[in-house]
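We were asked to recover a plausible sequence for a given structure. The inputs and outputs are reproduced exactly as logged, with field labels preserved.

PROBLEM: sequence recovery
POSITIONS: 140
GIVEN STRUCTURE:
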């Protein structure tokens, strides 16, 4: 399921299954997943609107899973024109909306399943296209 764009600045949440409730003891928290094509294909202001909408729905302890690319990856030739937003610091982006994020790149420990035979450059090295795999928890 995905979120459909109603116009350039608003999103309509088409179905309550956008979030999956899980009962834990006496409170409910939610798990959100944003498919990669949904977030990479929208503009930066639309990403902020989407994160604000999800954050408004989320309670402390909710979890969020998504993947992002950095700004350099927008220029990657095979996908030029398809990627419309990139973020160089996903931890700071999600912190703006009250999320504590764990971020790894494909090929790093926890995201290397024999597909990346080489070590990716450190994140402090500029001008390298990157993908980020993110899981975040809503702070209380």
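RECOVERED SEQUENCE:
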């Amino acid at each position: 399921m995905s979120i459909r764009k109603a116009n350039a600045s608003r999103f309509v949440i088409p179905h309550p299954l956008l979030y999956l409730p899980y009962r834990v003891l006496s409170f409910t928290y939610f798990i959100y997943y944003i498919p990669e094509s949904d977030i990479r294909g929208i503009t930066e202001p639309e990403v902020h609107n989407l994160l604000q909408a999800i954050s408004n729905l989320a309670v402390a302890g909710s979890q969020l899973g998504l993947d992002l690319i950095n700004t350099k990856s927008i220029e990657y030739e095979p996908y030029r024109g398809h990627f419309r937003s990139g973020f160089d610091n996903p931890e700071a982006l999600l912190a703006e909306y009250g999320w504590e994020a764990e971020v790894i790149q494909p090929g790093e420990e926890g995201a290397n399943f024999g597909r990346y035979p080489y070590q990716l450059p450190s994140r402090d090295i500029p001008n390298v296209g990157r993908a980020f795999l993110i899981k975040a928890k809503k702070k209380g």
